[in-house]
Amino acid sequence: MRLVVQRVSEAKCTIDGHVTGSVDAGYMVLVGFGHMDDRKIIEKMADKLVKLRVFDDGQGKMNLSVKDIGGKILSIPQFTLYADPSKGNRPSFTDALEPETATEYYACFNECLRTLEVQVEEGVFGADMKISLLNDGPVTIILDSEVLW
After folding, report:
1. Which pLDDT score is estimated for 9?
2. Which CATH architecture has domain 2-144?
């Protein structure tokens, strides 16, 4: 499982002119799933994301989590996080989980975040989404379950 986590002042997902999710302070997270993922990994990644301390405390140090600041998460499904551009110029996506299971895992990940008491807004799996955001910092962190565990 791979997450690209961006600390944002604001972010929103628009599909066909309709906003499906928006947040103020918090994260915009691109979420991708690979063949090795399962519910245990999803739960661990959700916990890691919620506990990640990249928001400034009173002394200006990155020492607070998204929960600590009362922030929200805009979760965006992104199978292209598993792109393999090593052969030729057109990336292969064979490492990405098939859409049916990935859709289930995406819903599970968002529910895990909600269970951890964080408000979650969502994109739509498989849709042509337009994402706008104001990256705060900028702070961008990549979490990859294959590297973490």
Report:
1. 98
2. 3-Layer(bba) Sandwich (3.50)
